[in-house]
C-alpha cells in the first residue's frame, strides 16, 4: 500500500480470457446483458454475481457506467439498500439518475469537478458531494475518504481508463478477477486497464507486478483469480 493514509482497495471485475470488460466498443454492448445470450458463457455467469455480493460495502464506480446500465431511466436497476456507492462523474448522470441512486442505496458519495452537476439540485440525507476545482486529485480523494469519511475498504468496479489512473497512482492493493470462458477481441473494446500506452523506458515503472494469492477453478470453465499488487 502507498504511504498515504487511505482505504484498502480491491479491483473486482468480470473479464474475458483476453482481458475485455465489455463485449464491444459501443454503449449498448455490455457483459451483464450479452453474456446471458452466449452458450458456454451464460451457464456459469451467476458465480460472478454471487462473488460480487461478498465485496466491500463501499463500491467505487463511474457515472458513465451507471448511465450505461440505466440509472437515468425511470426504473433504476440498482437495488442495494445496504451498499454505499462512490461515483466519479462530471456529465453522465442526470438529476433523475441521482434520485434513483439515492432511493436505492444506503449512501451515495458523488465526486465531481462540474460546478453545475445536477446532484447539486438533489436534497437527500444520504447524498454527499466532494467537489474539485479543475480535475479530480485521486490521491487526495482517497485520503479524504478514509480520514474524513472513515471508509476503510473500497471495491473498485470502474472502467479501464479510471482503473489505469488508480493503478498508476498506487491506489490499487488487490485485484480480484472472475474470468469468463470466452475470447472477445476488438482493439477498441475496453479492457481491464486502458489509459495512456507505455512508450518510454521511464514509463516501464507504470507496469505493476502482481503476486498470486488465490486461484479457484469455478464451475462451467470460469476462474476466480486474486492478486496482490506490488506497489513500489
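Q: What amino acid sequence fits the structure above?
A:
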Amino acid at each position: 500500500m502507498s504511504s498515504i493514509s487511505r482505504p484498502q482497495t480491491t479491483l473486482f471485475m468480470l473479464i474475458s480470457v483476453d482481458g475485455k470488460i465489455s463485449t464491444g466498443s459501443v454503449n449498448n454492448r455490455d457483459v451483464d446483458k450479452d453474456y446471458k445470450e452466449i452458450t458456454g458463457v451464460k451457464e456459469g455467469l451467476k458465480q460472478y454475481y454471487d462473488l460480487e455480493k461478498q465485496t466491500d460495502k463501499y463500491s467505487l464506480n463511474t457515472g458513465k457506467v451507471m448511465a450505461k446500465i440505466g440509472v437515468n431511466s425511470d426504473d433504476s436497476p440498482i437495488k442495494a439498500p445496504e451498499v454505499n456507492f462512490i461515483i466519479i462523474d462530471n456529465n453522465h448522470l442526470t438529476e433523475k439518475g441521482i434520485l434513483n441512486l439515492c432511493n436505492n442505496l444506503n449512501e451515495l458519495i458523488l465526486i465531481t469537478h462540474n460546478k453545475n452537476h445536477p446532484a447539486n439540485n438533489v436534497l437527500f440525507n444520504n447524498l454527499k458531494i466532494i467537489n474539485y476545482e479543475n480535475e479530480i486529485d485521486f490521491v487526495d480523494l482517497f485520503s479524504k475518504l478514509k480520514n474524513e469519511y472513515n471508509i476503510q475498504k473500497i471495491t473498485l468496479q470502474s472502467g479501464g481508463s479510471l482503473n489505469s489512473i488508480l493503478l498508476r497512482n498506487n491506489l490499487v492493493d488487490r485485484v480480484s478477477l472472475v474470468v469468463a470462458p470466452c475470447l472477445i477481441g476488438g482493439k477498441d473494446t475496453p479492457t481491464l486497464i486502458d489509459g495512456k500506452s507505455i512508450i518510454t523506458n521511464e514509463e516501464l515503472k507504470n507496469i505493476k507486478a502482481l503476486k498470486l494469492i488465490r486461484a479457484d477453478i469455478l464451475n462451467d470453465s470460469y476462474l476466480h483469480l486474486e492478486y496482490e499488487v506490488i506497489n513500489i
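Q: And what stands out in the fold?
A: The radius of gyration is 18 Å.
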